[in-house]
Structures are given as C-alpha cells and as structure tokens.
Amino acid sequence: MTDQSVPEARTPAPEEGAVDALQEGASEHASSLEGLSRRKLLSTVGATGLVLGAAGGAVGYAARPAEATPLTSVGADQVMFHGKHQPGITQGLQARGHLVAFDLAAGAGRKEAAALLRRWSQTARRLMAGEAATQDDTDVARDAGPSSLTVTFGFGHSFFARTGLEKQRPSALDRLPDFSSDHLDKKRSDGDLWVQIGANDALVAFHALRALQKDAGSAARIRWQMNGFNRSPGATAHPMTARNLMGQIDGTRNPKPSEPDFDQRIFVPSTGEPSWMANGSYAVVRRIRMLLDDWEKLPVTAQEDVIGRRKADGAALSGGTETTDMDLDKTDAKGNLVVPINAHARITRPDQNGGAAMLRRPFSYHDGFDGDGVPDAGLLFVCWQADPVRGFVPVQRKLDRGDALSRFIRHEASGLFAVPGGAAEGEYVGQRLLEG
User: Fold this and answer.
1) PANTHER family in the record, alphabetically (predicted)?
2) 250: annotated active-site residue
C-alpha cells in the first residue's frame, strides 16, 4: 500500500426497497420483453430515462423490488473499449472487481494466443457497450447497463517463451526481486495472461468474468482468480478518497491525469521499446493480507503514527487537510518528529524515492475466516507505471527496510504484467505483438 489514490466516481445511491412475492402478472411483463434486445432496451432507457419496472427484474425469482428503480447513471455509465490506452487504468475506482490469470494450454502457442485475444477483445468490446456476449450468453447481466465495465489484458513473463516471442519480451518485464516481506504462494502468482475486470455492478462484473472464461475454451486454463470490492458509487455525501479495510483513507497522493508528467510516469511513450508496448503500462499485482486482529488492538493514535496521517480525515500528522503537503521536518515540544521516521506515508512519498511514482487502483478483498475466526482480508494491490524497475521496485525495497506498517500486512501473491496500449478500431489487444 502506498500514499496514493484514484478519486471515486460519485452518483446517487439506488433506492432501497423491501421485496415481495412476484405477482401473477409477472409473466405478462416477461413476455412483453421477448424479442427486445439488450442493446435496444439500453438505448431506449438512455434516450428517455424511463423506469424499467417489474419487467426489468429477474422474472422467475422468488422476490423482486417493491418499487421500480430507474436505470441510473450507475448502470448507464459506459467506458469505451477502443482508445489510446486500455480501459481500467485511469478510470475511477469501481465497486466490484475480478483479477484472473490464465496459462496457455499445453501445445498452445502464438496462433492460439492470437485467436484468444481476438475473441476476448470482441467480447470485452460488446460487454463494455452493454451488449450481450458474442455467443452463448448467460443472460446474467441482461437487465443491466454497462455499469462502467472495464476489461484490461496483460502478458506475463512466461507468455513470451510459450509463444516463441522471447525477443519481444520487454526488459521491464524481468521478474520482480524477492522482498523480505514476501510470503508468496506460487500457485496464486504470475501467469501467462492476466485479465482485470471492474464494474459498478456485481452481476455485470461476474458476467464479464464468466464470458471471458468460456471464451478461453481449450486455449488457456485459469491459473488463479481473486475477487475484490470498493465502496459503491454514491455511498458518501460527497466525493472522497476511499478507505481500506484498516479504516484509513488510502491513497491521497495518487498521480492525477491533470499533472503534466502523468503520462511520462504511467505510460510507455509512443516511441518506447519494444514498439508494441507504445502507450501501454506495467501492472504490479499483489495480494496483501491485512492482519486486522493485530491492527485493531492498536489505539487510534498508534495507528496514525504507523500511517503518518490522521484516521478521521487523512490529513498528515504535521497538520492541515488531506491534501496539505506533509511537513517531514516538523517536531513536537519534545523535539520528536511529528511524522515518525518509519511512518508508511513518509516512506512512500515520491520525493523520498527519487520521484518514483505509481498509479494505484486497488480493490479490497475478504475471503472468509479461518477456524479461529481470523479474517482473510486485505488489499488486491494493483499499481500502474511506465517502468516497474523505477516505479514499484525501489519503493517496495524501501518499505522492506523499515515501514511501520509491515508488522500488520503480509504479501501473499504477486505478479507483473505488460499491458499493451489500447486497441484501435478493428484491432484486438496485443495484435501488434502477436502479428507484428
């Protein structure tokens, strides 16, 4: 975790309603939708703002909302698939996410990988537009809008040997070094291919996950998969930086697209090497378990010393508001540093790391409790940078040497993936690598 964040998109929260048994007339509503495509339904709602009503619900279930709820902007918001960069990098935090890695099947190579990326790109484009999958759609998201769905694809270190493309493997994709805080499960790390799915509706996100898994067919098999979440859009009275499961405002100093050097820090330049990575980025993925039982035993003042920021509002311990620059030299009446020397926020500051910066876009996760009631919960850390050797690695090495937060977290899985630039109209993601 670092002292950086992506602003959340804010939309009105959907109305809560009790649920009643389906009325006998529900079948009439269902029949009225026959022949009405999801695309047509969405375009009609988008143009008129009509309330979907009972017919928009899942007819056949034992209960439905007592009152009709409109397709709000939460559902109607759409991210474009084609573009200079892949989606899912600069967009705001999404309420639901799935991270999944695939390994190519035995005997599958460059030809099979190209066909798979072509299928995946076509499916991602359709789903992000609120349309059904290309074929054999499960109808899981039939009644929903795009819900800001994004699908992002990347290549792992092992992909290039599997496809005979070792000469095209970027030097920046060299394996991450070992860190003293690592307790990595190799079965949940790395992979030939990586997919990031995010949406503001859980069904829309799962629909994409299932569609892409089915698209993989015999060409690839799932190596690992992780599920995450963030605060729902509209859950707070005003836009604010998200909190993590430790209750801390997490990510105040994230790079912003409005900053003049943002692209330089986050994206490979159009003239960069290898050429197929132009306008792409590198994603470091870490499953970071939070030792919440230990953390929650600390008094709030001790938690704040560990982070270097106030828990209530995210302001630095040196004073001001959340966005006030941290005064690293400020001392108290006894001459002690107000922001402790090993505070997490101090160590991760770019100006304390030679300007190293990452765009963090994480999800929280909770995978249940063990037999003693200890939660398996924490952060699915995803960070983006133009070069992980200059971005993630030096910061993590410094954290290894003395971060006060290290006592309360454990890095359990890890991966590094090359994420090429966005696909142009008529292209699929990775086409310049696989057909270049």
Assistant:
1) DEFERROCHELATASE (PTHR30521:SF4), DEFERROCHELATASE/PEROXIDASE (PTHR30521)
2) yes
What does the pLDDT look like over 397-413, one tens digit per residue? 999 999 999 999 999 99
Q: Which residue from 360, 381, 283, 287 is spatially nearest to 86, judged by alpha carbons?
A: 283
Q: Which two tokens stand for residue 79?
A: 């991210």
Q: What does the radius of gyration of the chain's CA atoms come to, in whole angstroms?
A: 23
Is 389 within 8 Å of 172 (Cβ atoms)? yes
Q: How many helices and strands, by DSSP H and E, does the chain display?
A: 12, 11
Rounded Cα gap, residues 18 and 253, in angstroms: 41
Identified catalytic residue from 77, 137, 201, 250: 250
In sequence order, the β-bridge partners of residue 93 are 8
First vs last Cα of the chain: how many Å apart?
37
Q: What is the dihedral of CA 254, 247, 318, 93, to 10 degrees?
A: 10
Q: What is the pLDDT of residues 353-392, one digit of tens each?
A: 777 889 999 999 999 999 999 999 999 999 999 999 999 9
Interatomic CA distance for residues 346 and 332, integer angstroms: 17
Tokens of 267: 């994206």
Calpha distance 128→199 (Å, rounded): 9
CA–CA dist 90, 152 (Å, integer): 12
